[in-house]
Every structure is written in structure tokens, then in C-alpha cells.
Amino acid sequence: MTQVVVVGAGLGGLRAAESLRGQGFDVMVIGDEPHLPYNRPPLSKESLKGGVEVEGLEFRRKHDDIDWRLGAAATGCSLASRMVMVDDSAYPFDGLVIASGIRPRHLPVPGPQPPVLRTADDALVLRARLTPGASLLVIGAGFIGCEVAATARQLGCEVTVTAYDAEPMLRPLGAQLGAAMKAHHEAHGVTFHLGQGVAEFHDDGVTLADGTRLTADVVIEAVGSVPNTEWLAGNGLDLADGVLTDSLMQVVGTDVPVVAVGDVARFPNPRFDDVPRRIEHWNLPTETGKRAGQTLGALLNGEEPTGDFRPMPAFWSDQYDVALQSYGQPALGEPTLVDGEWSGDCIVEYLRDGEAIGVVGVNRTKDLMHYRKEIGAA
Amino acid sequence: MKITVDMDKCQHYGQCTFEAPTVFALNDDGKLEYTGEVDDALADQVEAAADVCPMQAIEISA
User: What are phi and psi of B18, to 5 degrees?
Assistant: First the structure.
């Protein structure tokens, strides 16, 4: 039998594994967490409110004959000998799926590193500490930081958010929507200290670059992510930011059948241009996982992968009664209000060279579908 | 095949409507409406719809 090894037991690894098992290959999945693949977005929302355990977040699994090896991360890989290493064990493969994802980034400043929120186990620890009246300091004002802030306010915590950027979610949403979201948070009682980097961590908070000392009962760091590629070192791959692949998710720089999926894959999307990018949006692991499954299947059958792959990135974020939804790549364009008011329910298109490359709706899910059709259509 | 959407989980994001447009739709109020029992010929579409639901609210049974 032809053996596929999938490194990474998140959503992208699951979708690729299902595709390949469905094609008749033997599939082993290696995952660092002890859990079967589960849905992460609820970790910053429902899971912190309680009553949602990891078992309830597990994805539906379509095959019961995939070999799950959970609880230890891949530590190395030799493409030349077609082996993945997990500590002292070596697992041979005919085809490899790189689905090792990302981990939270830490700020390189002195002092004790604060906890992060990435896994179901992280959420359990944080949940226990977010008791009514407790104070929370969130370092970072991206989606995870802002969602945790909103959830903590709903739990009755006092919440402060600090970030280097001048507005929350500045890069994905732009300054105007960022400012509007800041106003939503402030109306719900969140205090912001923006535009300042962190100079030092303390057990009870941080000192900012301007000397401001912020303290809290609970501190959490949510300042972006780093792709997990260290285990691939020494194979001659382009690991500059994730793993470089072609537009059909085949890893570039090796003759061995290898594909990459999800957050760790840096791939060109002809919907937008020919620039390879990593995209950390929720639907991409499913899209890239299914496509990579087809690509690897073809390679293992001695065929040339064919087809056209132009996935539409999409993300969602719920904060209080605000439902943000996006299609495309808003971060690459200039925000332009097309309907509503910046401060209320609205639709914002993001233009690059006069063409819509992304769209974001605030509480406008159904209307957004019309705009979705225009994104990167050229 | 039978389809059940957990409406406590569903946030009406509408991703299922792109994958299985004859089974799922958002109504004029932006709320999800769906057909609870469909022909097995639509199985691939319905499976894809369940896969892309951000809330993982769609359940399928034979």
C-alpha cells in the first residue's frame, strides 16, 4: 500500500487526510496535541464562557480507518529518505502532507512570558481565571485579543487592551473600521492603551515603551503567530515564511511528493495575483486541504496535478453584538465605505488599483454575498 | 439523507449556501433556512456545506 503521512492534526490536516483516505491511500496523522481535530474559533468565545469542552468542538470525521498518532510533535524530517521523525521514532512515507500550522508569537522583551490562547487546553486555563471582577490585560489587539476582551467583559471582568498599532485589528480592517471597533469596545467598558510597544513583562502586567505600568490579575499575550517549520529544516525547502508551494499546494524545491496546507502554506492565489502568501483565515485549511489531497493523490499515481485553484478567503469575528464578516484579502487594499456608516452596520470594500480585492461587512451577512461575487473576479 | 442544523450554534454566516444552494439559503431577514431531507444525489454538496460551516452546526444522517 502507498503510505501518506500528514504532519499536523488541525483542520487542514484532517481535510487532506480525508481526501487521501478517500482515494484509497493509507493515512497516518501526527499531531502534537492530545486531541482529535477540533474547531478553534470558539476557544476565544464560547469555550471561555464555559460549558463547551473540547470533545464538543471536534470535527465530524468521515473515515474511521485513519491512523491518528497524537500527543507528540514531529521533530524532524528527511525528504531524501522519506521519513518523518517524532523523537526517537521514524515514520516512512511515500507522500507527505505538511499541515503543522502556526503557534503564537511571543514579544522578544525581558520578563516572564505571559500565557497565550491557541489550544483547547489554553482555553481551559484562561477560563478558570476569568472570574467576575477579575482584571484582564490583553497584549495585542488583533482578532483573538479583541474577542477575548469582549468575552471577558461579558463575564464581568475588567479589561484593558494594549497594542503597538494605533487601532485594534488595524492591518486586517484598516484605520476606520478599527476605530469603529475600538469605540464598540469602549462603549462596553474596555480601556485601551494603543500605539505603544511593550518594554518589559512582569508577573502582574507590563511596562510599555513610554514607561506606563499596566497591572492585572490575568495577563494574556495575543500578538500574532509563527509558522511551525523547524522540523522541516535541512531539506532545502523555502521556509522563509511558512512553506512555499505552487498554486496547487505542491511544495516547491523537491522531487518527493509533498504538499502543504492551511496556515503553514505560502501559496500564490491566481484570484488575486502571483505572489505567494500565507493566509490564516478559517476556511483556507479546508480549501487547501482538499486541493492538496487531489494534488498529492495525482503525484502518488504518477500523474501531473491539474486544475485551477482560486480559493476565496473568508473570516468571521463576533464581538458583543457586532458580527464582522470578510471575503477576499482586505489587508491588501484601501478601505472604501460602500454602504452604511463607518460607526454602524456597514459594508467596506478594499480597493487595489481600482478593483475590489476584499470586502468586510459589519452585521450585514446577507448583503455581503452580493459583494463576494466581485472579489478578484478578473 | 437527513440534514439537521443546530440553530443554537448557527450564526447565519451563509457559507453552506455557496456549497449547496438548493438545500441552504438565507431568507430576507438574513436567517438560515434549509431543506431537512434531500436526495442522496446531493450528498457531495451537503458534505461540503457541513465542512465549511464555521460553527460546525450541520449534522448529516442517512
Answer: -75, -30
